[in-house]
Design a protein that fits this description.
By secondary structure, this protein is mainly beta. The chain is built from 3 helices and 10 strands, in the order αβββαβαββββββ. The chain has a single domain, classed as Roll (Pnp Oxidase, Chain A). A hairpin with a 4-residue loop joins strand 2 and strand 3.
């Protein structure tokens, strides 16, 4: 046994890579829309959405956030061309809902009463933040696409604890110390 870290393993080991990625906590969001016109695969008024745990802030000016979407995603192509998208940051008590929105597309909105804007942006109630976004660009990134979303308007409540994804499970945050001036 040594006092230092364990030996490095080759990045080609997918299990080791997934374990390393799971060491970094991330927020969990829903990216959603309601169709406003009939499409070839769905009628107007269809709710479409997905959960993403690869959400991150990107820029204050312009106000950008991002999500990473697998190339095989069947949902992102249905969201991509929306005039506006709703991004809902899940609260700590919404783990079951996040799992549901990551599940089978036909059951993602079962027992959910989302809030829709006339533009089609769709929000999940009870979240810690809601961001009204437009798609601002896509960047290929390995087996994913990084989607940049520009925030048009928002509401947030920092007193509502967020849902956190860490080590392949949902977790809650714990305050360690009060922030100065809080």
């Amino acid at each position: 046994m040594t006092d230092g870290p364990s030996p490095l393993v080759p990045v080609g080991d997918p299990g080791a890579l997934k374990r390393a990625y799971s060491c970094f906590p991330s927020g969990v969001v829903a990216v959603c829309r309601r169709t406003t016109v009939d499409g070839p695969d769905f009628p107007a008024g269809t709710d479409i959405g997905m959960a993403a745990s690869s959400f991150t802030t990107v820029s204050l000016d312009p106000p950008l956030v991002s999500v990473a979407v697998r190339h095989e995603s069947a949902t992102w192509p249905l969201l991509r061309d929306a005039d506006e998208l709703g991004v809902s940051v899940f609260a700590e008590h919404q783990g079951d809902l996040a799992r549901q929105l990551a599940g089978h597309p036909d059951r993602r909105f079962a027992r959910v009463r989302p809030v829709a804007l006339s533009s089609g942006a769709l929000f999940i109630p009870g979240g810690t933040a809601h961001l009204l976004c437009t798609a601002a660009g896509e960047l290929p990134a390995g087996d994913h696409t990084v989607v940049l979303l520009e925030i048009q308007s928002l509401r947030s409540d920092p007193t509502v604890e967020p849902l956190v994804f860490h080590a392949s499970t949902f977790r809650a945050l714990e305050a360690r110390r009060a922030l100065d001036g809080a």
